[in-house]
């Protein structure tokens, strides 16, 4: 793949960047000097590629976008494989409606993403699903993006705050200026895609933490409204849809409880517990997104994570709601 200069990256639009990544013309991470970040996702990328190779989906990709062949052999194989490799139980029922839905979930590992893909492919037949994907992971799965779309899974690259912090430890000011501009343009493109998906009656899946985080709340202070929750992912998404004049949608809470002694990775062949929590109508989401708490965060962000916590608790995951307080000496 071609190595781009910083000036070349600066001159590209976000759409051109995504198109170039999809076609494997270049690697942004390698071009900007973040080879280690790219290498960290090699195993995950290989597992995903091998999964697609086993299904035979590469032979069934249709040139017609947004059209899924529900009877394709590849689709049936991926359901069968994920049922064994990424097992999960789902408590409750996913919403079955015509309008778009934003699914928000706690994100303790990479493993729940595989389980959500299984749920989407196996149970959600009439809609396509959009996932924001951290740039290192997106580059790792570039070879199978078309095949994922064939089964209704669409991904958009973003640069999360945690990845940005990792980059800042390695890069100089000039590189980080490019990273920050790129991050903003990719986020704008992602938000536009979210609006397109919701206005078309499709689904968005997003983790409020915007990164892997072992507990639902980052700290006890966040869980008690003393410290603002950052980032304000659900709030910003609600306000984005409102600015785009989209009203006919809802926000759906999903709780995730990973297996005992889980790791941050895929946790293959281990059972996850998942639960469908509250459905929040758009009017309530907007009202709460506009209401600020004394700590400076929005009411909606706190309410959404609180609803996730209640769902997680009902699944037996009380220990992953908030970090344990240190014991007194």
Summarize this entry quickly.
The chain is an alpha/beta fold. Helix content is 47%, strand content 14%. It has one domain: 3-Layer(aba) Sandwich (Glycerol-3-phosphate (1)-acyltransferase).
Question: How does this model look, in words?
Answer:
The chain has 329 residues and is of the alpha/beta class. The chain has one domain (6-319): 3-Layer(aba) Sandwich (Glycerol-3-phosphate (1)-acyltransferase), CATH 3.40.1130. Helices cover 47% and strands 14% of the residues. It has 15 helices and seven strands. The protein has helices spanning 6-11, 14-22, 28-31, 35-39, 42-55, 73-85, 111-123, 135-140, 145-150, 161-170, 173-199, 220-223, 233-243, 282-290, 299-314, and strands at 88-91, 100-105, 129-134, 153-158, 203-206, 249-257, 272-281. Helix 5 (42-55) packs across helix 6, helix 6 (73-85) crosses helix 7 (111-123) and helix 13 (233-243) packs across helix 14 (282-290). The longest helix has 27 residues, at 173-199. It is globular.
Looking at this protein, list some descriptive labels.
329 residues, alpha/beta, Glycerol-3-phosphate (1)-acyltransferase, 15 helices, 7 strands
Write the layout of secondary structure elements.
Layout: H1 6-11, H2 14-22, H3 28-31, H4 35-39, H5 42-55, H6 73-85, E1 88-91, E2 100-105, H7 111-123, E3 129-134, H8 135-140, H9 145-150, E4 153-158, H10 161-170, H11 173-199, E5 203-206, H12 220-223, H13 233-243, E6 249-257, E7 272-281, H14 282-290, H15 299-314
């Amino acid at each position: 793949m071609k190595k781009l200069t910083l000036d070349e990256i600066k001159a590209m639009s976000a759409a051109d960047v995504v198109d170039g990544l999809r076609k494997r013309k270049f690697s942004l991470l390698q071009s900007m000097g973040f080879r280690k970040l790219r290498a960290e996702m090699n195993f995950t990328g290989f597992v995903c590629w091998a999964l697609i190779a086993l299904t035979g989906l590469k032979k069934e990709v249709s040139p017609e976008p947004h059209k899924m062949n529900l009877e394709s052999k590849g689709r049936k194989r991926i359901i069968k494989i994920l049922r064994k490799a990424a097992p999960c139980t789902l408590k409750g029922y996913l919403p079955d409606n015509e309008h778009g839905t934003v699914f928000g979930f706690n994100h303790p590992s990479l493993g729940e993403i595989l389980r959500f893909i299984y749920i989407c492919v196996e149970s959600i037949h009439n809609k396509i699903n959009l996932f924001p994907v951290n740039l290192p992971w997106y580059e790792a799965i570039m070879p199978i993006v078309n095949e994922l779309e064939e089964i209704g899974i669409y991904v958009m690259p973003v640069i999360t705050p945690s990845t940005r912090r990792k980059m800042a430890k390695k890069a100089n000011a000039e590189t980080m200026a490019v990273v920050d501009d790129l991050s903003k343009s990719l986020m704008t493109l992602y938000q536009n895609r979210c609006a397109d998906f919701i206005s078309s009656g499709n689904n968005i899946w997003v983790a409020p933490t915007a990164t892997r985080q072992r507990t639902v709340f980052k700290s006890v202070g966040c869980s008690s409204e003393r410290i603002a929750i950052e980032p304000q992912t659900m709030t910003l998404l609600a306000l984005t849809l409102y600015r785009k004049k989209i009203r006919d949608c809802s926000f759906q809470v999903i709780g995730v409880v990973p297996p005992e002694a889980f790791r941050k990775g895929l946790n293959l062949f281990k059972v996850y517990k998942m639960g469908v929590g509250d459905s929040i109508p758009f009017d309530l989401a907007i009202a709460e997104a506009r209401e600020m708490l004394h700590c400076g965060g929005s009411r909606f962000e706190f309410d959404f994570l609180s609803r996730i916590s209640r769902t997680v608790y009902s699944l037996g995951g009380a220990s992953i709601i908030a970090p344990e307080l240190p014991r007194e000496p």
